[in-house]
Write a structure and sequence with these properties.
alpha+beta, about 45% helix
Length: about 160
């Protein structure tokens, strides 16, 4: 990131794999099923550019919500674990908190989609409310400030060298 700031352009390196590709391919189906199940429209959104940082949720829901869709790849046990847990996959916690922080929205729906499951279980939705995340949002703000300071220090070292 420090080099991107110094050079004024994005790095030429980008990461992709079959799991990310499948997720992009199946996201429209998951979004459509979510809209039908919740009887809402999901609006595509651009990157929330907040200067030194930003966020890119999978869509905005009405005036108060945001959505994060995960099209589960590989073995169905990942989707089953979400079903069994009755909540979002903990590995996505901070991404969801970031959506709430950056968008200013009141809630985020985590959506797990797996086409291999029976129709009535292909979509799992768990809502995380902003009001339940005040402490985590505060932690994120502190960590973000520390991270941005580290980037600044790294830029200074590179430019001095």
């Amino acid at each position: 990131m420090a080099l991107e700031i110094i050079k004024g352009k994005k790095s030429e390196f980008s990461f992709t794999n079959e799991h990310l590709q499948r997720g992009h391919e199946q996201e429209p189906m998951a979004r459509m099923l979510y809209e039908i199940e919740r009887n809402v429209d999901v609006t595509h959104c651009e990157f929330f550019d907040l200067g030194d940082y930003g966020d890119s949720p999978d869509g905005l829901v009405e005036r108060d919500g945001v959505i994060e869709i995960k099209s589960v790849t590989g073995p169905p046990p990942v989707h089953f674990a979400t079903l069994q847990r009755g909540s979002f996959d903990p590995s996505y916690k901070w991404q969801l908190i970031g959506h709430l922080d950056c968008t200013g929205r009141n809630w985020v729906d985590f959506v797990s989609y797996c086409a291999d499951f029976p129709e009535n279980k292909q979509l799992i939705i768990h809502r995380l409310q902003r009001k339940d995340c005040d402490e985590e949002i505060s932690q994120l703000c502190i960590r973000r400030k520390d991270f941005l300071n580290l980037i600044g220090e790294t830029i200074a070292i590179i430019q001095r060298g």
